[in-house]
Amino acid sequence: MLVERWRLILALECIMCIYSKPLQQKRRCFFQITESTEHNYRQNKKYTAAGSVSGSVQVCETTDCCVGYYWIINGTPKADVLACDRIEKSCPDETCKAQPRINNQFFTCMCSTDLCNGNITWGKEQTSNPYSYFSVVFMKMAVIVVGILLFMCFCIVAAQWRSCLKKKKKNLQSSSHDYLVQPSCSCQRTKTSEIDISQIELQQIVGRGHFATVFQGTYQGSVVAVKFLPAGYEHNFNTEKEIYELPLLKHTSIMNFLGAGRKPDDKSWFIVLQFAEYGSLHSFLSKQTTSWMFSLKLCQSLSQGLSYLHSDLLSHGTDLHKPPVAHRDLSSSNVLVRAGGTCALSDFGCSTILRSCSEPYRRHNQNKNMKCIQLGTLHYMAPEILEGFVNLNESMFLMQGDVYALGLLLWEIWMRCSDLFEGGAAPQHLLPYELELGSNLTLESLILHVSYMDKRPYIPEHWELLPQGAALRELLEDCWDSDSEARLTAHSIMERITSLQSSYSL
Ligand SMILES: Nc1ncnc2c1ncn2[C@@H]1O[C@H](COP(=O)(O)OP(=O)(O)OP(=O)(O)O)[C@@H](O)[C@H]1O
C-alpha cells in the first residue's frame, strides 16, 4: 500500500513538473561555413558536429550559444563562420556583440537567442554603426599612411630643393663666368622685307596652333606658308619675328623666313615662311613609318637645327653676331618636314635670346614665356620645368630643357621606324607619355610620372637585341636624364647620330 502511494505521489509530481515548466526548445543558430581555406575546412568539421544542419539553420545539440566569426573586407563585415558553439559556454548577451581579433580585421561574437548570430552588433567604443566603426578604424589607418606619405614627400622636396639650390649656385657661378668670356653682344637684327598681303595668293589652311592659323599660298612664284596671328597677338608676332631676324639664323634645319606684315582689314599679323611639303613632324609620323636610314636623316637634321640654334656665332668678316637661342617649345607640331625628308625648326613664339645685352628685352620675353609654359605641349616639358625649378635667367637650364624635348622627339621618330620592329610593324604614332598617361594628360599626372617617379617613355625591350639598340637606349637616356646637367648638348647629340649613321647603315 505504502509503495503504491509513493508511486502515485511521484507520478503526480511528474505531471505537475511537466505542466509547470515549459518544454525547453533547442537553440537554433544560423549556419554558414566558408570552405575556401584549410583553416575553414577544419572548422567545418568541428562546427557541423555541434548540431543538426538544415540549410542555413543549425539546431544545437550540446549548447545554448550561437557563434559568429566575421572578417572585415573593404570596411564591411563578411561572415566566415556562423554556427552553434561546440561546447557549452556562458553567453549572456542576446545579440551577437563584436569582439575584435587580429588588429580589428577579424571579429567574433557569441549570443543566446535564436538566429542571433546572423547580425553582428557593436559595443559603445565601437559605436552602434559598424560602418562608422570601420570608417573610424579606416580613417585612423588613412591618417597614419597620409602622415607617412607627407613626411616622405617633404623629405623628397627638401632634398630636391637642396640639390637645386646647389646647382643654381654652381650655375650662377658658371653662367656669370660665361657672361664674362662672351664677346660683347651686338643685338643686331637683319632687315626684314615688309610684305604686302595683296602680293600673296592664299590657298587652303594647312595648320592651326594655339594662336595661329597657317595657310598655304604663293608669293613671287614660290609656294609659301603664311602664319596669321590675330590683332591682339602683337607680342607673339614680335617675339617670333625678332628670332627670325637675328643675323646668321639662316640654316637648312631652321625654317626659311621670307618676311612679315599686317593685314589692313582685320589688323591681323602675318609671317611668311618657306612651305614645308610634309607639314609638321607630328602629321608626318601619324601618316607614315620610316626606314632606319630615313629616321636617321630626320634625327640628324633635327639635332643639327637645335645645335645651330643654341650656338653662339661671331662672323669675323662681317662682324655679325648670332646669340644662342633656346627654343622652349619644341614638339612634333613645331618641327616641320621638308620634301627632302629633313626636319626644320619653326614656331619661335616662345623662344628666348640668351646673353642679350638688352635687359628690358629679356624681362619682356620672360613674361611671355610663362604664358608659353601654360600653353605649350605639356608632354615635352622637362622635369625641372614641370617642378618650376628653372631660373629663366639661366641660359644653361633653358637649353637643357630643349635637349630633354629633343630626346623625346628622337624617341617619337624611332618608334615609327619599321626597321626597329619585327616584321616592319611599328606601332601607331604616339606622343611621349601618351601610352602611359593617356591622350588627355594633365600637369599633375605628368609631374607625378616624370618628376617624382622618374619615368620616361617606354623603350621596346627587343631593341637590346638589335645591333644599334644599346646605342639608341644610351642616347635617349643621356638626353632625358633627370639631372639636367648630366644631359648631352645638342651638338654632341648631333655627333652621336652621325656616328650611328656610319656604324649602323642598313
Ligand atoms: N612653313 C610651314 N609649312 C607647312 N606647314 C606649316 C608651316 N608652318 C606651320 N605649319 C603648320 O601649321 C601648324 C601651326 O603652326 P605653328 O606651330 O607655327 O602655330 P602656333 O600657333 O605658333 O603653334 P603653337 O600652338 O605650337 O603655339 C604647324 O603644326 C604645321 O602643321
TrEMBL record:
<feature type="binding site">
    <location>
        <position position="227"/>
    </location>
    <ligand>
        <name>ATP</name>
    </ligand>
</feature>
<keyword id="KW-0418">Kinase</keyword>
<keyword id="KW-0812">Transmembrane</keyword>
<keyword id="KW-0723">Serine/threonine-protein kinase</keyword>
<keyword id="KW-0547">Nucleotide-binding</keyword>
<dbReference type="InterPro" id="IPR017441">
    <property type="entry name" value="Protein_kinase_ATP_BS"/>
</dbReference>
<comment type="similarity">
    <text>Belongs to the protein kinase superfamily. TKL Ser/Thr protein kinase family. TGFB receptor subfamily.</text>
</comment>
<dbReference type="InterPro" id="IPR000333">
    <property type="entry name" value="TGFB_receptor"/>
</dbReference>
<keyword id="KW-0675">Receptor</keyword>
<dbReference type="GO" id="GO:0005024">
    <property type="term" value="F:transforming growth factor beta receptor activity"/>
</dbReference>
<keyword id="KW-0472">Membrane</keyword>
<dbReference type="GO" id="GO:0030509">
    <property type="term" value="P:BMP signaling pathway"/>
</dbReference>
<dbReference type="GO" id="GO:0043235">
    <property type="term" value="C:receptor complex"/>
</dbReference>
<keyword id="KW-0808">Transferase</keyword>
<dbReference type="Pfam" id="PF07714">
    <property type="entry name" value="PK_Tyr_Ser-Thr"/>
</dbReference>
<dbReference type="InterPro" id="IPR000719">
    <property type="entry name" value="Prot_kinase_dom"/>
</dbReference>
<dbReference type="GO" id="GO:0005886">
    <property type="term" value="C:plasma membrane"/>
</dbReference>
<protein>
    <recommendedName>
        <fullName>receptor protein serine/threonine kinase</fullName>
        <ecNumber>2.7.11.30</ecNumber>
    </recommendedName>
</protein>
<keyword id="KW-1133">Transmembrane helix</keyword>
<feature type="transmembrane region" description="Helical">
    <location>
        <begin position="133"/>
        <end position="159"/>
    </location>
</feature>
<keyword id="KW-0732">Signal</keyword>
<keyword id="KW-0067">ATP-binding</keyword>
<dbReference type="InterPro" id="IPR011009">
    <property type="entry name" value="Kinase-like_dom_sf"/>
</dbReference>
<dbReference type="InterPro" id="IPR001245">
    <property type="entry name" value="Ser-Thr/Tyr_kinase_cat_dom"/>
</dbReference>
<feature type="domain" description="Protein kinase">
    <location>
        <begin position="200"/>
        <end position="500"/>
    </location>
</feature>
<dbReference type="GO" id="GO:0005524">
    <property type="term" value="F:ATP binding"/>
</dbReference>
